[in-house]
Write a structure and sequence with these properties.
Blueprint lengths: L4 E12 L8 H15 L2 H8 L7 E3 L3 E2 L6 E7 L2 H9 L10 E4 L2 E9 L9 E3 L1 H5 L12 E10 L1 E3 L2 E3 L2 E3 L2 E3 L4 H15 L8 H6 L2 E13 L5 E12 L5 H17 L12 E5 L1
Length: 277
Amino acid sequence: MSDDLLALVVELEPVRLPREPRPLGDAIRGFWMGELEQAADAALWKRLKEGSQRREYTVSDLYQVEGEARHWLRLTSLTAELTGALLGGELERLPAGRTVHLHESAFRVLGCATRREEHPWAGRDSYAGLLGRYGPGGTPPPRRLRVGFASATTFSRTKRREGPFEVPAQDVRFPLPDKLAESWRAAWDRFAPAPMDPDVDRYAAALALKEYRLETTGLQEYGGVPRNGFLGECIWEDELRRPEWAARLWTLADYAFYCGTGRLTTRGLGLTWAGPG
């Protein structure tokens, strides 16, 4: 089974750090776009840089390993074509010792990871593998779902009517389970071989929130407009216990490791993990 999905982690050591820490999502996206211009063929490169639809990759911010000088950053791929370009050529362009410049900062590459045993945020998978993980012949979906948000996360809600009220477009800064499922399903439907039943969003809405540890964090959207997002984790319980629907939802939750959650996942937002509660 070939890998459609890839989470590529680059481990770094600092050469030069800025005086004041700042979000580097845009700079890291620029770095990866420069790399992919060399690794991808013309058609793939054009698709990566153009258009307003959801992109087939996500980009992390820069993270420091707790208690150490080491840092890491991450790129994920949601298509077999991009994954092939990354595994086929990009890893060779990031040898240990190469210097990476991010704004006024500079880092030296220590190595790259593409599997979970190499780094907790690295990994490979396939759409077929995700679909076969739960349900008949697979693992029974856990009763509880635990989802963590490791970078600022926010959703968009379009202008709408609620009865007699006209509600303007809004940013949603709380992990409503139906909004999570909707976000993950939007990526799945765009890149997976077959779409996911949209009623999985309604199934997610019925989850019961059992525990949460969340905080509001500031983020700077491109264009300089300050916005807020949320960080932390939540645990929900599946009280409906419909295995076929739970399997769909848990499949999307596993997919979130690659596709992220919410808005601006190509600029460092929405870094997500999920597991049993």
